[in-house]
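Re: the multi-chain job from yesterday

Posting the exact lines I submitted so nobody has to dig through the queue logs.
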Amino acid sequence: MITVVGSINMDLVVQTDDFPQQGETILGQSFTTVPGGKGANQAVAAARLGGNVQMIASVGKDSFGKELRDNLQANSVNCDGVLENNAVASGIANILLSGGDNRIIVVPGANYELTPSYIEEMKKIIQKSQLVIIQQEIPIPTIMYTLKLCAKLGIPVLLNPAPAGGFQKEFLAYTTFLTPNETECEHIFGVNMEAALERYPNQLIVTLGSEGARFFDGEKHVIVEGFKTNVVDTTGAGDTFNGALAYAIVEGFDLKEAVKFANAAGSLSVEKFGAQGGMPTRAEVEQRLRGES
Ligand code: RIB
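And the result, C-alpha cells for all chains:
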C-alpha cells in the first residue's frame, strides 16, 4: 500500500493565448475547475496504474471539499485519512495555461490545517504502508514529523520537494528518494546538478521534463530518456512521474526501470487537459514503453 501525505486543491484553470503583463488586462478563452493538488494528483496517478493508495490530507467542509473527496474516491483512492475542516476553505490553485505552459498560484487553505498531531493519529495507516509519498504544499513541521515517524517505523519515503521553498536540509536524512526538477534541485543544493547527484547516489532523482530524468548510481550518472509526446497541458506531469515512480518501486522494479516507467507515465499525462485528465493506466504505460503509442 502507498500512502500519500499531501495537498488537495481545486484547480481554477484559465486558458489564454498570452500571459498578461504586469498591470494589463486581457481576455481569456475558457475557465474550468478540475481536481488537483500535488498530493491528490500523485495519489490518483498511482491508483490509476493499479496501486492500492491511501490519502492523508485536509479539505474544507465546503462544496470543493466534497467534490475533491468524491473525485479521489472515484479514482479508487481511500479517503479514510482525509480530514474535513469546518473553519477553513479547501485549497485552490489559480492556474494560467497558455501554449502548453503554465503559471500557478496555490492558496493552501485547509491543506495548512494538516498538523503533526493529526499525522500521529494516522499512524495506524502509515505503519501499514510500503511507501509514503510527501510533497511540500503542507506545513513544513508536518513534513518533518511525518518523515521522522516513517523513519521510526522503517517505512521508506519519496519526498517530492515541490514547491521547493521551505525545504530543510534535515529532510534528506529521513528521505529514501528525493525528486526535484532541475530548478528545485538548484534551489535546494545551490550547486550544479551533477555535483548534487553525486552526493546522494540512488537517492536523488532529478526530473528533466520532456528530456526524462537522471540519478547517480554510485559509479556513474544514469540518464533515463523521456518519450516523444504531443503536449496539451503539462500541469501534473511531475505529479504523474512521482505517483508512477512510487507505484513502480512498490511493484519491485529496479530504480532505472522505475524511472523509465515513470517517464512514460509522465509523457502520457501531458496529452490531455487537466492535472489528472491524462494520467494513464498501467496498460497504457506498457504500450508506450513498447513504442506502440
Ligand atoms: O503540480 C500541479 C498541481 O500544483 C496543480 O494541480 C495545482 O493544484 C498545484 O498544486
